[in-house]
């Protein structure tokens, strides 16, 4: 029988804290997005399933002591070698376990802090950074032109692709947009996006995009309310938002159309490539990373630079040509501390 005075061995304490963490701490205190909450909940449930199926621990008996270093190490090995999960999936689940234990340790440091510190010695897997995937300029142009503008669905899809590219929004942000988020009559037309962590950001809209939106609204939102999804489908006379899978399928279908029309396209196109393409295009055209960070809604500059600040063949060639030109060095900020730290660091 478990010692009820020791929180690490009390299953009731575990289940109460775990539920508080995913149902209250993450969404209400940390203001985590619904997607983040779902990812953490799924990760913790996977570990619980593992303890039950592989360690033969009844769900009703699971407690914090079962979150020990050996079990977590075995779980990582099982995910990697038995289930063949991707490295990022494995790391997400280990991160969720660490986060729960950190929360529990702060709530009950006497019994759980040692357990948390021991669990933190189980590190995530080192993920090799793959080359960033994005559409080349001619490919993006072909993709935007692929929908059939003579059909209702085609006009909706083309507007969706145009706005997706122009704003570099996340696909979840695009699908959750409502008419009320558009501000087309402002001095500088813009779109308000509710992003990760329930944080708002305003994205300016290009004039051509505004013209497309005005035409789209006249055709699709004459009789809708301000809280209606900007992009929707009708089923049995009712409006409902589009799904992520619908957009993924749409992009693959239009890429196939492009290939049939003679334009080469990436082998495995997906939604996020459009967001990456817009960011890459802006980067290649000289937009500061700080501005790209704001556009993308990245909380940390390291996230932006990690994904987008790498040299393409084109940008590398331009940089080398500029460096080889004779100059007097005028205007170079060699004494700028921030630049020196970036150049002379390991």
UniProtKB/TrEMBL annotation:
Domain (Tyr recombinase) ranges: 130-321
SUPFAM superfamilies: DNA breaking-rejoining enzymes
UniProt cross-references to PROSITE patterns, sorted A to Z: CB, TYR_RECOMBINASE
Pfam families reported for this sequence: Phage_int_SAM_1, Phage_integrase
MF annotations from Gene Ontology: DNA binding
Chain ranges of the Core-binding (CB) domain: 12-105
The keyword DNA-binding appears for this protein: yes
Keywords: DNA integration, DNA recombination, DNA-binding
Biological processes annotated in GO: DNA integration; DNA recombination
Tree of life domain: Bacteria
Family membership noted in the UniProt record: Belongs to the 'phage' integrase family.
PANTHER family in alphabetical order: PHAGE INTEGRASE-RELATED (PTHR30349), TYROSINE RECOMBINASE XERC (PTHR30349:SF81)
The protein's role, per its UniProt record: Site-specific tyrosine recombinase, which acts by catalyzing the cutting and rejoining of the recombining DNA molecules.
Designated name of the protein: Tyr recombinase domain-containing protein
Organism from which the protein derives: Eubacterium plexicaudatum ASF492
